[in-house]
Amino acid sequence: MQVITTHLNADFDCLASMMAAKILYPQAHMVFPGSTERLVEIFLKEESHSLEFTRIKDIPLDQVRLLVVVDTHTAERIGVFSPLLDNSQVEVHIYDHHPDPQLDFKAGRKIIKKRGATTTILHEVLLEKNMPLTSEECTLMVLGIYQDTHSLVSVSTTPEDLTAAGDLIKRGADLNRVSSYMRQKLNSEQLDIFNGMLSSLENHLINGVEVSLTTASSDHFVRDLAYVVQNVMDLENLSAVFALIRLDKRIYLIARSSIPEVNVAELAQVFGGGGHESAASATIKELTLVQAKEKLLGNLESLVQPLSRIRDIMHAPAIVVDVDEPIQSVEKKLTLYNL
């Protein structure tokens, strides 16, 4: 038996990557390891498509011989399928755009590239094999790329993402449908979290870089927190934001960055999480909100790259020339001081 899966709380990059992988592995069952983001759930209910998913309970794990994992290579993020990674009878294929390609298990195929979305990697594979795509498939793949790259403007966006999106649009992707899923309204529970984050928003200057920190709490689970955090970032025009959100007894870290000086994946790894340089998350189980905030602030200075300063790029002491000095003389001074 062959299975295609992805990470928990699957987003559109996961969905599009699974669909693309299904083209490469037509005999495989597409299986979500757990819940999906609300917008993905709405998409699957509203859109007319030929995607067929198998429920986890209908997959006999002892019969799986090929496991295809997209948009992650972390065992903890694929739920019940994680034990299969260490099963010698199961061949594992990985397609992922997240950094740190060091695997704790043996993979028969491993394609991990620096891209803004895993969908872009699968597009490259399909293009190389000259495999056709329907307009519906192109639309979903553009949606996957757009969501993970924030419409191709995030710091993690690569030229390959732009090329892939352009090719998919040329093949018939419907941008009207894509945009309708990129502009969803917050529900009442999300609005409570949103307002809480706005009221607690703090700005810190770390190594010359402005970094924002915010917190919020709720006594019950709220879905799609990443979407809420992105709304705060867009509204306040933040360059980098770290959100600590308590839901019942657990704390969730969600981080976003649009600048190269702040790699949010590195900070998420401090809390046992992961992601990529512009978007990352972690689940924090054994700290209070106050303790998590203190730990976050304590690690920021070592992880935020300092901005270039005048003294870093200027020659010292300053070399001066007289306003009446001949050009030839100035040229000799420039050569002498290797300027």
Automatic annotation (TrEMBL):
Record-annotated DHHA1 domain positions: 226-302
Gene Ontology MF term list: metal ion binding; nucleotide binding; nucleotidyltransferase activity; RNA binding
UniProt entry keywords in alphabetical sequence: Magnesium, Metal-binding, Nucleotide-binding, Nucleotidyltransferase, RNA-binding, Transferase, tRNA processing
Cofactor(s) in the UniProt record: Mg(2+)
Protein known as: DHHA1 domain-containing protein
Residue ranges annotated for the DDH domain, each copy included: 3-145
The organism of origin for this protein: marine metagenome
GO BP of this protein: tRNA processing
PANTHER family tied to this protein: A-ADDING TRNA NUCLEOTIDYLTRANSFERASE, POLYA POLYMERASE
